Structures are given as C-alpha cells and as structure tokens.
Amino acid sequence: MWTSRPRPPMTLRPDIAIFSVNFPPEPTGIAPYTGALTAGLRRLGFGVTAHVAQPHYPQWAHYKGYGQWKLTQNVDGITVHRHRHYVPHSPHGIRRLLSELSFGVRLMLSKWGPAHVVVVVSPALFASVLVGLRMRVSRKRTPFIFWVQDLYALGMAETRQGVGLAAKITRWVEARTLKSADCVAVIHPRFQRYAVNELGVDPAKVVVVRNWAHLPASALVDAAVAKEVLGWPGEVMLAVHTGNLGVKQGLENVIDAARLADELHAPVHFILVGDGCERDKLLARAQGISRLTFVDPLSEAEYPRALCAADVLLVNEMPGVTEMAVPSKLTSYFHAGRPIVAATDLGGVTAEEIATSGAGTVVPAGDPRALLDAILDIGADAEAAAHFGASGQLYRQAVLSERAAIGRWATLIEDVLARTPSPVRRSPRAVGAMVLGGLVAASPFDQHHPAP
C-alpha cells in the first residue's frame, strides 16, 4: 500500500534513481515490478528515488487525485517524483511517440538529485533516450542500468505497427541505447539472445533478472467464495483474462471463442478484466454475446479474488507475436494455482514459459475453436486442472521468487558500481551521437507498444 511515512535513517549503501513511465498505484503491466524493486532495494538499505509519470495506465487517463504538473511523495522511505506528461486517449502512432517524448522532456528538465546508479525502465524507450542524453552531457559519470521489459523493434515487427524506415530507425535507436548502458537487465533468456545476436550488445553487459510473482500468499481464497464476493456466475466454468486490452493481446480471438460458446451452448463464461486502448473496439465486436462479460480494472484487494474465482486463466496474443514480451500476468497466474490456457505462437516465449512451468496448455493464436476446446477439456478434467495449478505454484516458488530477484538486483548494482571508472566528462563526439539519437527518436512514425 503506497502511503506516506517518515523516511528511515540513511544508510551507507548506494543511492539509486529509478526512471519509469509506469509505477504504483497502477495495478498491471510493469508498474508492480518497478514498485516492488524500489521497495525491495529500500529494505536492503539502498537510498531510492523514483522519477515516474502520473498514474494513467491501462485506462490512458489520469487516476482520480492525480494529474498535477508535479507531485512529490514519501512512500515508505522512497522519494517519488511524479511528473505530468501527455497522455493520449488513443495511444497509437504519433500520439504514442509524443507521449513518450513528453515524459522524457519532463525528466530531462527536472531536478534529479544525487545518485550513484541510475536504472531506466523500457518502456518507455524514447523517454529513456532523453534520460540517457542528459546523463551523457553531465560532468559526473553516473553508471546506468537499462531494464528491458519490452523489445521495441521486435514488437513493431510482430504487431505490424511499423515497417520500412520506421522499423529501421527504432531498431537503430534501441540498439544504440542498449549499447550505451553500463548494464542491460532483461526479463527472459530469449531477450538476452536477441539483444546480443540481433542488436549487437556486448554479451558481458546483458544479464537476466526474471520478473517475479508479486501477490502475497494471503491473497488466495476459495473459488466459490471469490465468485460470490465479486458477483460472478457460480454455476458455470469461468475463463478469465486479466490485464491490458491492447493490440498485442489480440483479444478478438477470445471474443470469437465466446460467440462460438453461445452457438454451441457451451457451459463456460468468459470474463475480460482490465482496460486498454482496444477496449472500445472489443466492446463493439462483442455486441450480442451472452457468455462474455467485461470488467473494469480491479483494486489491489479485488484482483487476487478474480484470479481465485477463475476455473481457467487465459493468456491470448495476436498471431505473429513470439518474442517481444513475456506477459506480466503470468507471474500472478502461477501464484494463483489455476490452470492456464495460452493462445499464442507455438514457438514463442509465452509457449515456452507455459511448457517449462507445466502450468497449462497452449493452442495456436487466432484459433477461437481451439481455444474453446482447450478450456472445455480442462473443465472436464478436474485432475488435470489441479495438476496444472499446482505445477504453476511450484514454478513460481522455485524460479520466480521476489526475494531472489531483488537480491540479484542488489548484486547487479554493486557489480556495476565496482566496474565504473572515475568520474569523467563525455567527449563532444559521444554527446553528439546521443543528441543525434534523440533527434531521430523524435521522427514521426506509427509506434505502439502495449505493456505485457
């Protein structure tokens, strides 16, 4: 819970500045991870300052009580500077690019305060370019870590949101930004391979730090109780999808599966929990379907209930999406102990994660009949459903531990500091290259990267 409290006494561990467009109280996407990282580092004795946007995701509108030009809070000893930037209602194309650039400009012109290490989170890549530019022209040589949650160039190719020159520019900017970092932290080994083999980043710079399950164990409740509290149907199987309703998710497939369930009188009800830039289009497509309900984003207390109320948890990705992002919802799904059905590319990173965890089954993306059949098969096999759920929980405990991830981050920060040379001023040539990168980033093209 993000409430103001007195700041604990300072320690001798380094001061860390974290820059991220997403941060709590945003409940989904990368915000829970940036929030947990700041809190975890603070518990380990680091001084932590967060420079973030005013909360707006996934609704793409400022939350009630926020939206000020600047707001500074003290949250459990963490100084949080919130900056208002351009938030488009429809975050596509040039609007999305301008949104990221406006956040980057706010960060460039704000006071940062002292820091021994800077952590920059992508998304937003183009805001990160401007943060990097300011660091390069600074007299002090502050090392920075680039935390990659999404791969932009790959995402543009897989979602067909940019081709030709736009794709080449994005790839160049992303590669140059990652190469300029002292360390690149990625959330999956496939991201590591792409950064090294496709973007040309020094392998010694790239490390894998997995995202973790961030829900407390006490959040788990009985399914029947959860359905009753939420007012959801209790007499049929519930197939629940949570999170962003964006382009990458390709949720037309789920809507078509629900329509097919209507036609077949199948004993299943689909629930889409969340918001996003595609919500209005999805609502229009879903007109007349009785076995489908849209639910607004839930509170921190209600979200775990939604997972527990599900008989099956859904991951859906548009055809062609294979490598660009690891769905952040998976960590919470594993925690909930419910079977997962993933409609995705059979050779992609999401399919690999499901197979490795043993937490569910995978069907081809864009095949609503296959999705419906997989859901009904799990509903008819209680033993398989229980096995999938238990396997996900074991995987979460063994691989996706928050304690281990935060400890890995602490070691990473100390290692970067140990490798950093004495403070120097960047050469004019290096500064000029970063300026060129910033100018190129401002070129208008169709750019859209929904968070996982």
The CATH architecture of the largest domain comes to: 3-Layer(aba) Sandwich
**How many H/I helices?**
16
Strand order of the largest sheet: 3-4-2-1-5-6-7-8
* Helix vs. strand class: alpha/beta
Q: Report the biggest beta sheet as strand number plus sense, adding barrel if it closes.
A: 8 strands, mixed
| Portion of residues within helices | 40-55%
DSSP E strands, number: 14
- What is the CATH superfamily classification of the largest domain? Glycogen Phosphorylase B
What's the gyration radius in Å? 22 Å
Residues in β-strands, percent? 15-25%
Number of domains: 2
Shape descriptor reads globular
Please name the CATH topology of the largest domain. Answer: Rossmann fold
Q: What is the C-level CATH assignment of the largest domain?
A: Alpha Beta
Report the end-to-end length measured between terminal Cα atoms.
23 Å
Low-confidence region ranges: 1-11, 423-452
